[in-house]
Amino acid sequence: MAVANNKNVDGETAEAACVERRAAMAVLAQAEADDIERGLRLVGDGVEFTEPRPVETGLIMLRGRIGGDGAPFNAGEATVTRAAVQLASGIIGFGYVLGRDHRKARAVALCDALLQADDYRLSVEQHVLAPLRLAQQQRRVFARAQTAATRVDFFTLVRGEDER
Amino acid sequence: MYVAVKGGERAIENAHALLADVRRGDRAVPELSLAQIDNQLALGVDRVMCEGSLYDRELAALAIKQARGDMIEAIFLLRAYRTTLPRFGASEPVETADMNIRRRISATFKDLPGGQVLGPTFDYTHRLLDHALAQASEVPPAATASASEATFRSVTDLLADSSLIEAEDAQDGEVGDLTREPLSFPAGRDLRLQNLARGDEGFLLALGYSTQRGFGRNHPFAGEIRYGEVEVEFFAEDVGFAVPLGMVSLTECQMVNQFAGSGTQAPHFTRGYGLAFGQSERKTMAMALVDRALRARELGEETGAPAQDEEFVLSHSDNVQATGFVEHLKLPHYVDFQAELGLLRQLRAEFAERAADNQISDTPLQDAAE
Amino acid sequence: MTALNPDPAFASQAAFRALMEAFARPGEMRTLRGVTAPAPLAPATAALVQSLADYETPVWLDRSLAGAPAVAEWIRFHSNAPLVTDPGDAAFALVADPHTMPDFARFAPGSEEYPDRSTTVVIQVERFCGRSFSIEGPGNKTARSLAAEPLPDDFVERLHANRELFPRGIDLVLIAGERVTALPRSIRVVMET
């Protein structure tokens, strides 16, 4: 199992690997199944894996904080789909994503497994994660720029020193 | 009491077929897609997710379509659906401080770090019907400007710097969940907020309004309202660390309210809090007002106004419960009614008898009923 | 690792049904198809865990099961259930070595208001034979005889004491191979033969 695998390497490496996997999951969770799968095809069609547990959709209770920074409270639920895949080498990868897309959860799990496999890590980074990261970054920058345009500039009238 | 009555099967079947028919409406008019509802009726989707207490845009859009736009019916559908799914656990508390801001305004400070960011808002529109929207229209993309801030410090955070506002206790303890344990009173603030978060917007709006009109006044200022996306994380036992699940849009309202203080504590502002799925500004503002009103006793204020009555507010905020009880009145109550009818006839007979005996005809009915 | 079951939903429903029927007819034998799981977790017990336990049902393992880390790992992976060390916190308690099982009083008996908040104890026995005892109560028109081994010597006394708590009390499930039977708190031991 994944946890057992991690125990084999020393603590620090395992922790670094977890940080890396988390960062990859953050990118994958925001991507579409089609885009992840397109990248995975470039990694190699021949990756064989099994599913030790069926893909499943369920709920998580979404928690907020009282006052934004206080004790937690339950704000409402969200649909979540989870998948686990196992490579021939025994490595297990997990996919946990908001929504009900089984294909996406499975693709994320496969990426997670491949990221833990030395001979696939770079390829997944290059073909799957890098393009997704770039696209997401662009979307974020654009949204932020649109939002910034709605910022009220109270000083424009009185200062008269605006460069625009 | 009502009893099962058989014989309506064919009628029910045909009524459902008729419902499907009128839901589709004129076949010459293109059918709505879920993407259209999600994109173009986004605030309706937000409301259904919020009061349905289930974050899933596509399902909420489906519910709205199925319910023919009846929001409470759509909310009901979503609530029913969620009961069919297993629960994996609870997320880590979302950090609204790290929100990707789409809108952020404060009514308390003009110049706050990050500034007043209006975002997509109805504020400052003229509320004049835009007849141009009656036809399909080309909409140019919105303007852009260089953005400096990535995260925005909250107004309550700024006030806290100089201890001008009460501090929340961030202790992570057991979190009450009214979907698991029935609500009992007095309820902790965690349960109250959960109840209000899924509560009916109209009900909370009316209660919030009532506090402004003097029924439990607490002098609110909209310290800050922010709307945007936050990342959700879930500690998955099998994975062994907190997994990022993706982003959700949330609206948060921080109300800054009148002071409290004591012999040992310097006077400071108090807080009311609102949090809701999607862009639900009115909902979070009303929620924050009611949250604050429900804290009256805790803060040693005079109580007695409807919005301060915890049992009244929390027991009647849920529109699915409310609609269930109100609408059940249309179910057959034939036997009940027969009993009432029988009683009434008997009373009338007794009345008539007495009237004949006394030879008077104008005794009020309630006397006869005694 | 368990092979992917082609019909997990149906398998889960089948396990649920078997257990439901077992509880409806206390002492009667039902068949429960097991799933592959690390020893000493029996396949039928594993099937029950998979279909019944989730993150809201804490699971307690007896010393023999807790001694095998693969068992805890399997339960976490397949059910997401948290493992607890105090049997009083458990919704499900799994016992692989009946001789050393804790006294029933150490499990959660539920409360008068919420008798359902009690522990369901799953006991893996080797076979359904040996010294028998008779039970009666809801679900059985007449007394039914049951035998299982190994069980603690004072098992019958424990059942007596458990019945005294009604409506509180624990529910028991006995498993041997693919055969399963249930002893809900409602049963009374009428005689020992």
Keywords:
heterotrimer, A: 164 residues, alpha+beta, three-stranded antiparallel beta sheet, 51% helix, globular, disordered N terminus, C: 193 residues, alpha/beta, Rossmann fold, seven-stranded mixed beta sheet
Compact description:
Chain A is of the alpha+beta class and 164 residues long.
What does this structure look like?
The complex is a heterotrimer of chains A (164), B (370) and C (193). Chain A is built from 6 helices and 3 strands; from the N terminus they run αααβββααα. Chain A is of the alpha+beta class. Chain A has one domain. In chain A, strand 2 and strand 3 form a beta hairpin. The N terminus of chain A is likely disordered. Chain B is of the alpha+beta class and 370 residues long. The model of chain B has no long low-confidence stretch (mean pLDDT 92). With 193 residues, chain C is an alpha/beta fold. In chain C, helix 1 packs across helix 2. Chain C is built from 5 helices and 10 strands, in the order αβαβααβββββαβββ.
Furnish the topology, listing elements before pairings.
The complex is a heterotrimer of chains A (164), B (370) and C (193).
Chain A: H1 2-8, H2 11-29, H3 33-43, E1 49-65, E2 72-87, E3 92-98, H4 102-115, H5 121-148, H6 156-159
Helix pairs in contact in A: 2-4, 3-4, 3-5
Chain B: H1 9-24, H2 34-40, H3 42-52, E1 54-55, H4 57-66, H5 71-82, E2 87-90, E3 100-105, H6 155-161, H7 189-197, H8 201-212, E4 221-236, E5 241-260, E6 268-277, H9 281-293, H10 310-316, H11 319-327, H12 334-358, H13 365-369
Antiparallel strand pairs in B: 3-4, 4-5, 5-6
Helix pairs in contact in B: 2-3, 2-4, 3-4, 3-5, 4-5, 7-9, 8-9
Chain C: H1 8-24, E1 30-31, H2 43-52, E2 59-61, H3 63-66, H4 69-79, E3 83-84, E4 92-95, E5 120-124, E6 127-137, E7 140-149, H5 155-164, E8 171-176, E9 179-183, E10 188-192
Parallel strand pairs in C: 2-3, 2-4, 4-5, 5-8
Antiparallel strand pairs in C: 1-9, 6-7, 6-10, 8-9
Helix pairs in contact in C: 1-2
* Helix and strand composition category of chain B: alpha+beta
Rounded radius of gyration of chain C (Å):
16 Å
CATH fold category name of chain C: Rossmann fold
Distance between the termini of chain B: 25 Å
Q: Strand percentage of chain C, roughly?
A: 25-35%
Oligomeric form of this entry?
A: heterotrimer
Strand content of chain B: 15-25%
Count helical runs of chain C: 5
Return the CATH class of chain C.
Alpha Beta
